[in-house]
Amino acid sequence: DNANLFSALRAAFPADLDACAIECADGEHLRYSWRDLERGTAMMANLLDSLDLPPASRIAVQTEKSVEALMLYLAVLRAGHVYLPLNTAYQAAELEYFIGNAEPAVVVCAGRHFGWVSKLAFLAGTQRVFTLNEDRTGTLLDRASQMSDVHTPVARQAGDLAAILYTSGTTGRSKGAMLSHGNLLSNARVLQQAWGWRTGDVLIHALPIFHVHGLFVASHGALLNGSKMIWFSRFEPRAVIQRLPEATVFMGVPTLYVRLLAEASLTREACAHMRLFISGSAPLLIETFRDWQQRTGHTILERYGMSETIMLTSNPWEGGERVGGTVGPALPGVGLRIVDDAGRPCAPGEIGHIQVRGPNVFAGYWRMPEKTAEEFSADGWFKTGDVGQQDAAGYVRIVGRSKDLIITGGYNVYPAEVEGFLNELPGVLESAVVGVPHPDFGEGVIAIVVPRPGRPPEPQALIDALKARIANFKVPKAVFVQSELPRNAMGKVQKNLLRAQHQALFS
Ligand code: ATP
Ligand code: MG
User: CB-based contacts of 274: which residues, under 8 Å, 6+ apart?
Assistant: First the structure.
């Protein structure tokens, strides 16, 4: 029995292979049938086979988002190799690290980067470098087009490696999470159930495909359900709103929801055909959650996951309330516990470290056995690095990352709590609370605030207002107003940059 993830996805293709599988919403508005996916991935898999690579070779890919790039992912699975997607924002120094670390047998990059990428790759022992451009030119498709369009998926076991996904690097250097066919398929099946995927669903796919959210959660969701995707190579809020009447499911990071809300065309009518809006990858502001409800009549379903585990928790699709500010209970099959610093279980409502286990949890970090060992508890639970609490009904609330937790004068300060209070003050759009070195307190709490349009708030007035609401040790000792927060490609606030910027404030 073949546990290759590709075989499971292929088995879900609809009987009518000429039906539309992917419709591009931009560029030349191309349409791809299920047969196109079947044939295109077969040709690419045959090309990989023709290279005589050792089984489970890494295939590193840094290209713009395109349907061909998605097909390449599927072809790598089909050929039994290991897919390694790279953020398109990464430049030479970053690529050198990833390619040197992963030692891929094959690298696929944009034609305009061929010169420097191929140099890096060959130094790292890569055998072949292909190019793939947004306009479907490049050596990958040239070569694949000469291959047979028939291919039998290579047999894989559930525990065999399918992908190495580098984490977003929000808290430090990215680590390569090793995910197996079984990790990916079990999670995709759980989500298909949990989110009520059904016949007739159409997904708007507007996320990048080098990350767990767009590549796995979104693409697997549609493919495993034989559902059509409306494909945006770039997120374009107005164009997305125009296509909502033809779709039923949308997935986005919180910043996408904020940008959609900024459009007057986002109305109840525009969303009338939609079944489900899902958010994740970063915390959704309660304000965005409420504004969305008011404007569209839909309640955003927030879920939580990470590169190492794919999805962990989700607010309910049906049969329960979607509670704003929470990421919902653990998904079926996922074990989740909250423990204190000593590893003892916390009582409901108590804040502690989130640990998880289940068929979705990765095998370890690529070539980092020590780091891997550190991140698992003695009894085999993965330490997520996130801090949160769980209520009696099982709903999880994330209060931040353990690395962002501030200890000031011996007291713990949870940034998300202070940010919540700050964001409710007049003139504050959003905020980030971090700790920086302080001679007396160890760390001093500071806040970076983004103002709403209009007159910016006075830092001292914000500090005074907080003093009336929360304990003094939680109140920022300094507040900086700036026009935006530094974010990475997934919309995550880069607190390490903020800490570095204000490093010397109290010294
Ligand atoms: P690195 O591990 O390299 O520092 P990263 O943790 O940001 O980067 P990812 O695996 O892409 O890399 O992101 C997972 C993290 O994203 C989670 O650990 C969690 O902190 C955050 N996250 C995901 N979904 C949510 C959510 N709904 N609410 C709050 N945080 C979330
Ligand atoms: Mg992480």
Answer: 244, 247, 248, 249, 250, 296, 298
Which amino acid is residue 124, in one-letter code? A
**Rounded to the nearest 10 degrees, what angle do helices 34-50 and 67-78 cross at?**
60
Q: Please report the ipTM that was assigned to this predicted complex.
A: 0.99
Going by CA atoms, what residue is nearest to atom 31 of ligand 1?
282
507 residues of the chain, pLDDT tens digit each? 799 999 999 999 999 999 999 999 999 999 999 999 999 999 999 999 999 999 999 999 999 999 999 999 999 999 999 999 999 988 888 899 999 999 999 999 999 999 999 999 999 999 999 999 999 999 999 999 999 999 999 999 999 999 999 998 888 788 999 999 999 999 999 999 999 999 999 999 999 999 999 999 999 999 999 999 999 999 999 999 999 999 999 999 999 999 999 999 999 999 999 999 999 999 999 999 999 999 999 999 999 999 999 999 999 999 999 999 999 999 999 999 999 999 999 999 999 999 999 999 999 999 999 999 999 999 999 999 999 999 999 999 999 899 999 999 989 999 989 999 999 999 999 999 999 999 999 999 999 999 999 989 999 999 999 999 999 999 999 999 999 999 987 778 999 999 999 999 998
Q: How far apart are CA 177 and CA 362, in angstroms?
A: 7
- The full length of the chain comes to 507
Looking at the DSSP assignment, which residues form a beta bridge with residue 354? 338
CA of 337 to the centre of ligand 2 (A): 17
* 3 state SS of 331: coil
Task: Give me ligand 2 centre to Cα 367, in Å.
Answer: 17
Mutate to test the pocket of ligand 1, among 90, 210, 362, 492 (most ligand atoms within 8 A of CB): 492
Decide: 428 and 460 in contact? Cβ < 8 Å: no
Give backbone dihedrals phi and psi of 37, rounded to 5 degrees, phi first.
-65, -45
Ligand 1 pocket member 309 (CB < 6 A): no
